[in-house]
Specification:
binds nicotinamide-adenine-dinucleotide; 6-stranded mixed β-sheet; Aldehyde Dehydrogenase, Chain A, domain 1; alpha/beta; 23 strands; Aldehyde Dehydrogenase, Chain A, domain 2; 2 domains
Length: 500
């Protein structure tokens, strides 16, 4: 059985803990590797290496740092297929879907390649006679990222390229369910010329996370995962004096107005709901059908859901792979049963799916489910199911739909399908959600914007990557300068300094 090691100071290492966790192949249900679970001493070793590396790395030039990013970008292009297969084998998503996450993660590296422009400070000449003011930003030191299973390459890539390009040293604690992508990226950094110790990977679960949150040598923590853990991480890390960005879970609604092209909307909702088996933080899990849109929409959605090909992620032609664990599969199938018991109509039932190939008999598969006549009181509406289940809620007007979305505790992504510019404008101004799509179901912003939801989807006040990423991983200095000529008479008063 393969053992997945930590990556500290430029080498694979076993660390000090003896605990391990199983990494499954979700398409067969078989154990395929054991990943080491780091303890506080392993985290401490990584912090020591990172702190040492930070001394030199933070003194390297902007040109040197962006050269590493250009090289990393090229390596991510060259190794896209290999990395996509590593992701698919542990996560279960299709290889093409995994390629998509690599491309979206690579965008952040591209943003970091242009750091020279976005990191520029400003300069005010002659604010007083002979006095100028300028500002610049400096890295924090050792920073850490704690990431979820559902995007084992992209979500860490939201963090480390910006942290590293701005001069920090980084410790990644990836999900223990699909840990191999992190080690692969560590080797790409090495090939890209990044000095040892600037990028480190400590695998693990709660013990490793707790050690990161409490370690005095870590200045900032980036977290992406479920809301309860995001709240915990935010609370613990801020209590230990750290800067924290903590992105949580989601329940994303798409509103469909009667003037929308239903075939177009259903196509995009199907991809948005069932792509990656619904295990995306921006997956559409609720379609809010307004007025006359409902019956036609449900009919087309049901047809499209039944056409989805479920299978192993590495088989050509598969649209949707398995869920990440047996527990996730059971949780999703239970949720469909509870929804039916609470009065929802199960239009398409993905439970108990059997695939033809006996190799997949024990895989963590469930088929797409479509639930109609769901109400906001039902569990299937209130919980983040994180699986291939689309719930239809029926309302009478756009204003009612907006009120439903705004009353939901989550606020990650949302979309409106309509042909009306007026409706779209009203929607985007009134909706209490951070990322909005107009006829776009999964509105993940480009890397030069920042990614972040509202309400329980983002704890604290720091969205991720883009300009917010630069701000998060650096702190500003403002310098007020005077170079008096030797003969110049300048009096120093005792009053609070003003400039005239
Ligand atoms: P998770 O919260 O279970 O795990 C996230 C990370 O926290 C992992 O590294 C895990 O090891 C660690 N962790 C888990 N339990 C912990 C505990 N008790 N104490 C300390 N650390 C712990 O999330 P997941 O199941 O890996 O990922 C799915 C979740 O992530 C969903 O809720 C999804 O919406 C969310 N997500 C959000 C975004 C976003 O941008 N808002 C993006 C991707 C995923």
């Amino acid at each position: 059985m393969k053992t997945i090691h930590h990556w500290i100071d430029g080498s694979p290492t076993t660390g000090t803990g003896s605990a391990t966790a199983t990494v499954f192949n979700p398409a067969t249900g078989a154990e395929q590797a054991r990943v080491l679970l780091g303890d506080s001493s392993t985290v401490d070793t990584a912090v020591t290496a990172a702190a040492r590396a930070f001394e030199a790395w933070s003194e390297s030039s902007l040109t040197q740092r962006t050269q590493v990013m250009f090289a990393l970008r090229q390596l991510l292009v060259e190794h896209e297929e290999e990395l996509a297969r590593i992701i698919s084998a542990e996560h279960g998503k299709t290889v093409d879907d995994a390629r998509g996450e690599i491309v979206r993660g690579r965008e952040v590296v591209e943003f970091a390649c242009g750091l020279g422009d976005v990191l520029k400070g400003s300069y005010s000449d002659q604010v007083s006679r002979g006095v100028d003011v300028h500002n610049f930003r400096q890295p924090l030191g050792v920073v850490a990222g704690i990431t979820p299973f559902n995007f084992p390459a992209m979500v860490p890539l939201w963090m480390h390229p910006i942290a590293i390009a701005t001069g920090n040293a980084f410790i990644l604690k990836p999900s223990e369910r699909d840990p191999s992508a992190a080690n692969f990226v560590a080797r790409l950094y090495e090939k890209a010329g990044l000095p040892d110790g600037v990028f480190n990977v400590v695998h693990g679960g709660k013990d490793a996370v707790d050690a990161i949150l409490a370690h005095p040598g870590i200045e900032a923590v980036s977290f992406v995962g479920s809301t309860p853990i995001a709240k915990y991480v935010h609370e613990q890390a801020t209590a230990h004096g750290k800067r924290v960005q903590a992105l949580g879970g989601a329940k994303n609604h798409a509103i469909v107005l009667p003037d929308a092209d239903l075939e177009f909307a259903a196509n995009h909702l199907t991809a948005g709901a069932y792509g990656s088996a619904g295990e995306r933080c921006m997956a559409v899990s609720v379609a809010v059908a307004v007025g006359g849109a409902a019956d036609g929409l449900v009919e087309v959605l049901a047809r499209k859901a039944r056409e989805i090909t479920v299978g192993p992620g590495d088989r050509p032609g598969t649209d949707m792979g398995p869920l990440i664990t047996r527990a996730a599969q059971q949780r999703v199938e239970n949720a469909v049963a509870i929804a039916a018991a609470q009065g929802a109509t199960v239009v398409v039932d993905g439970r108990g799916l059997k695939l033809d190939d006996p190799a997949q008999a024990d895989g963590f598969f469930t088929g797409p489910s479509l639930l109609d006549h769901v109400t906001t009181a039902m569990d299937a509406y209130q919980e983040e199911l994180f699986g291939p289940v689309l719930a239809i809620l029926r309302v009478d007007s756009l204003d009612e739909a907006i009120a439903v979305v705004n009353a939901n505790p989550y606020g990650n992504g949302t979309a409106l399908f309509t042909g009306s510019g007026e409706a779209a404008r009203r929607f985007q101004r009134r909706i209490k959600v951070g990322m909005i799509g107009i006829n776009v179901p999964v509105p993940v912003p480009m890397s030069y914007y920042s990614f972040g939801g509202w309400k329980d989807s983002l704890i604290g006040d720091h969205p991720i990557h883009g300009p917010e990423g630069i701000r998060f991983y650096t702190r500003p200095k403002v310098v007020t300068t005077r170079w008096p000529r030797a003969a110049q008479q300048i009096t120093a008063g005792f009053d609070f300094p003003t400039f005239d």
